[in-house]
Amino acid sequence: MAVYLVDFENVHSAGLMGVEKLSEKDSVYIFYSNNSNSMSFEAHAMLKATAAKVVPLHVSSGNKNALDFQLASFTGYLAGTSEDREVTIISVDTGYTFIQHFWERTMHCTNFMLRFAPSIKRCLPPESMATQKLEPVNTAVFATPVRKSANEAFTVGQSEETDKSEQSADNSQNNEPLSPALKNTVSETGITPINKAEVTEKIQAVKSPEVQEGKSTEAKTESKVIEAVSESAAKEISPAAPKEKSKKSAAKSAAKLATDSQKKTDASNVKQGKNKLAAIIKDAGIGKVNTNVICDLVADSKDKQQFYTGMTKTFGMNDGLKIYKVLRPEYSNLKKLLSST
Q1: N or C: which end of the chain has fewer CB within 10 A?
Q2: For residue 33, how many other CB atoms are within 10 A of its CB?
Q3: Where are the domains of the chain?
Q4: CA of 136: how far to CAs of 133, 139, 145, 268, in Å?
Q5: 91: which residues sit within 8 A by CB, 6+ positions away?
Q6: Pairwise CA distance, residues 267 & 261, whole Å
């Protein structure tokens, strides 16, 4: 069971997005005035489709924040009398947060939950993953046979005739007996049959220690000659390459040093600005406030007017104006320090 209080002057029809998904246990109170009493066709359709209880409340207007005061009063009424302990104010006006502060800090009310959102849709839980439809896996892709031949590792789905021809070629490499036709071909070309005894003799001779030592010495000598020639050729071909590389390296190092130095300077300026701002607030006797938020407002603002607007929206009219007046003389200096990054 949830209650939604819609500040229609603030959010208009967009604030009602998601109302059609509420249940019959929920209630929606729409606060509107003569300043804002028109609604889109889409919003009408959503209200017609919802199962929730919808109560339009036409409130008095003619003064600034008139609707806000009446909505806040109704919130207090719900907190004191209603069984609905979960209330959401649909608005982007940050001034409503003081209602929450009052009930939590002053009245120490722990069983009344007050939330804020720009639309009803933002309060709804995300849709379940189970409702998503997943495409079935195409198993045919994984059933395609892949060739085992090393020369055709990326060939897929060859014919049976190709497989048979490869089988016959593999068998010929396994020293199977030659057919009579092949024997005749060999004799016609004048190829001398291999003598196994001679082959064994030559293998043993190659493996002898004397031959191996001689080959090792020759290989070492050849390797040294190749290295010497390669070094000489490299020096003759590109004598200016090391100089160019060293120039580029020096330029990169200088650029990196300059960047690092600038980052250190920016970080130092920001730290100095934060310390200065905190000292000004402390000297003025202002209570505990979030100085980091104020620093961000100074850095992000374009001028004093924008800074003033941000302060009053964040801290309320009274506290925001008080802090703004204290910081206004030093705004330009603080802006330079805190905008370094």
Answers
A1: C
A2: 17
A3: 3-123, 263-338
A4: 9, 9, 21, 57
A5: 6, 7, 10, 11, 15, 116, 118
A6: 10
Place of tokens 């209080």: 5
Q: Torsion over CA of 218, 224, 226 and 231, rounded to 10 degrees?
A: 180
For residue 207, give the amino acid letter: K
pTM recorded for the entire structure? 0.38
CA 91 – CA 7 distance, rounded (Å) = 6
Query: Can you tell me the distance from the alpha carbon of 227 to that of 225, in angstroms, rounded to the nearest whole number?
Result: 5
Inter-residue contact 55 to 29 (CB < 8 Å): yes
**DSSP-based helix, strand, coil % in the chain, nearest 5:** 65, 10, 30
Contact of 90 with 119, CB cutoff 8 Å: yes
Give CA–CA dist 265/337, Å, rounded: 10
Is the separation of the CB atoms in 31 and 5 below 8 Å?
yes
What are the DSSP calls for 66-134, one per residue?
HHHHHHHHHHHHHHHH-S--EEEEE---GGGHHHHHIIIIIS---S-EEEEESSSGGGSPPPPGGGSPP
Distance, in Å, from the CA atom of 139 to the CA atom of 154, rounded to the nearest integer, reads 20
Condensed to tens digits (0 to 9), the pLDDT of residues 154-201 reads 444 444 444 444 454 444 444 445 455 545 544 444 545 556 566 566
Tokens of 116: 């804020």
d(CA 315, CA 98): 10
| CA gap 307, 298 in Å, rounded | 6
